Amino acid sequence: MPMPLSQETRVKIIFHKKNGETNDDIAHWLRVNEKTVRRMWRLYKEQNSVEPKPHNKGRKPAFGQDVMEKIVKKIEEQPDVTLEELIDEFDLKISISALCRKLKKLNLNFKKRHYSPKNNNETMCKNFGLNVTHYYPQLQQTANG
After folding, report:
1. Rounded to an integer, what distance in angstroms lies between the CA atom of residue 60 and that of residue 120?
2. pLDDT per residue over 113-123, tens digit each?
3. Do 71 and 77 form a contact (C-beta atoms < 8 A)?
4. What residue numbers bound the domain in which 132 lies?
């Protein structure tokens, strides 16, 4: 992207234009494009100023800091919450992957619960017809108790 036009050059363009010089001559003298001269003159006529327009400064965030704090609090309270549940609960207009990237920037990790039978070893032994207490003596107390 080219450098912005200096305030001095902008003022010179308007000065020469008011004195009746042609766009082509002004562009040649100041070493700018003729379209730049036209644009500066139009800006001056519309706004009576040659100040540069403010920049947009990029895309606006999908949600504010207050919502992000609520999300962080929810993750601290319920570490096994899914991204999809967060999006639904806070009615976010954001994709799952975008939310994941935002949370990674905050170094937030959340652990998922692994759902399995209470004692997987006991279930496996029963399925194969094995004596559980022979292979897992610690289970003998629970079997007798």
Report:
1. 49
2. 554 444 555 55
3. no
4. 115-145
